[in-house]
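> forwarded from #structure-qc
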C-alpha cells in the first residue's frame, strides 16, 4: 500500500488528502488496511479516503469495548476537524459507524454497511481463541470468505498472531462481547441519512437475513447482495462492490 501510516497525538491513520468528499473506512476486529486496499485504490483520485486504525489491541482493558472504540473515532474526527463524512464500515466497523452516526449525526452524509454487526453475528465460536492451533485459525479465517483462497497466508498469519498474543486476545473477546450487548434493533429508526447495504449472499458471520433486517429498520436504506461472496465483499468482489458504492455516493452527492 503506497500511503504511509500517519501517527499524530493518539491516532494512527491513512489519509489520501485528495481534494474531494471525505470517505472514512472503519475496519473490523481482524485486519485493517489490507481489507480496504481495493476501495482505497479505486476512490483515492476523487475522494479523501481516510482509514483510522482502531485501537482494538491497545485500549486499556477496562476500556476495551465498542464504546471505547466509538469514543476514539469521535475524538479522531474532532481532532481532524472533519465537517462531513461518508462513513463505511465492515463487520464491527459497521457497528461503530452506526453508533457514531447516532452520536454525531450532523457530520454524516451517508453510511455504507457491509457484513455489519449490530443485530446478529456468529463469531469464531465458543472455542475461540484456540491459541497455538494454526490450522484451526486458518480454517476459521477461510470460512469468512466464499472463496477460501481470499484468506491469504499473510491474512491468516495476522489473525494467528493476534489470538496468540494474550493481551490482544483478551481485548478481542471483551470487544466482541460488548458488541453483542450493544444490539441496535431499537435505535436504527433514528438513522436518517442515506444508507447503503452491500452484503455477501454467502456471509456466514452476518447472514443475509441480517442485511434484510437492517434494510427494514433503517428508514432510508438500499440493499445489494453479491453472489458467491462471504463476510468481506470489498475484498472478495472488489469490482462489483466499488461500482455499487460509487453509484450510491454520486447519486447522494447530487441530491
Amino acid at each position: 500500500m503506497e500511503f504511509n501510516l500517519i501517527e499524530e497525538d493518539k491516532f494512527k491513520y491513512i489519509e489520501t488528502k485528495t481534494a474531494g468528499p471525505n470517505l472514512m473506512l472503519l475496519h473490523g476486529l481482524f485486519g485493517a488496511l489490507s481489507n480496504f486496499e481495493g476501495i482505497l485504490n479505486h476512490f483515492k483520485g476523487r475522494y479523501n479516503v481516510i482509514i483510522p486504525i482502531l485501537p482494538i489491541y491497545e485500549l486499556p482493558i477496562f476500556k476495551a469495548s465498542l464504546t471505547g472504540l466509538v469514543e476514539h473515532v469521535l475524538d479522531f474526527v474532532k481532532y481532524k476537524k472533519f465537517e462531513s463524512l461518508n462513513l463505511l464500515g465492515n463487520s464491527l466497523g459497521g457497528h461503530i459507524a452506526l453508533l457514531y452516526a447516532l452520536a454525531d449525526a450532523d457530520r454524516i452524509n451517508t453510511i455504507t454497511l457491509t457484513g455489519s454487526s449490530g443485530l446478529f453475528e456468529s463469531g469464531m465460536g465458543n472455542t475461540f481463541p484456540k491459541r497455538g492451533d494454526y490450522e484451526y485459525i486458518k480454517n476459521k479465517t477461510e470460512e469468512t470468505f466464499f472463496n477460501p483462497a481470499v484468506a491469504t497466508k499473510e491474512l491468516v498469519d495476522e489473525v494467528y498472531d493476534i489470538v496468540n498474543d494474550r493481551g490482544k486476545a483478551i481485548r478481542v473477546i471483551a470487544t466482541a462481547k460488548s458488541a453483542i450487548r450493544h444490539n441496535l434493533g431499537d435505535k436504527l429508526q433514528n438513522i436518517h441519512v442515506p444508507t447503503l447495504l452491500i452484503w455477501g449472499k454467502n456471509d456466514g458471520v452476518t447472514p443475509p437475513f441480517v442485511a434484510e433486517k437492517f434494510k427494514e429498520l433503517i428508514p432510508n436504506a438500499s440493499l445489494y447482495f453479491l453472489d458467491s461472496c462471504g463476510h468481506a465483499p470489498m475484498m472478495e468482489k472488489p469490482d462489483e462492490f466499488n461500482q455499487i458504492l460509487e453509484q450510491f455516493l454520486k447519486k447522494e452527492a447530487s441530491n
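QC bot note: The two ends are 33 Å apart (CA to CA). The mean pLDDT is 92.
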